[in-house]
Write a structure and sequence with these properties.
about 35% helix, mainly alpha
Length: about 110
């Protein structure tokens, strides 16, 4: 969004956390998904960046930039968050779950003597 343009009001902010969502999804992300392959998709048509934009009925989701607990995520500020579309959000959750499960497996295997 540039200059004196007003935010797109066709997508309403959520009732809870609306100011933070508006800061991240509308002002900083300009209504565009900020995924840069974190979801596991290479986004080849966008040269590594997702090209989806939010629209009525398809708002962006604001998520932590790195995997953190739900408790920690609740206290994050705008600089620690990014806006992603629904498909990238699903992929991001999947990628983080796989990484978490792999780290648990590695920890268990590393501590096993026999």
């Amino acid at each position: 969004m540039s200059g004196d343009m007003l935010p797109d009001i066709s997508v309403r902010a959520p009732l809870v956390g609306g100011d933070l969502w508006t800061t991240v999804a509308v002002h900083r992300a300009d209504g565009r998904c900020q995924c840069r392959t974190e979801c596991g998709n290479q986004h080849t048509s966008g040269h590594g960046a997702c090209r989806r934009e939010q629209s009525l009925g398809r708002p962006l989701r604001v998520v932590p930039r790195v995997a953190v607990s739900d408790r920690a995520a609740a206290g994050l500020g705008a600089d620690d968050l990014m806006a992603v579309c629904a498909p990238c959000h699903d992929g991001l959750i999947r990628a983080r779950r796989i990484a978490h499960e792999a780290s648990i497996t590695q920890a268990v295997t590393a501590d096993t003597l026999f």
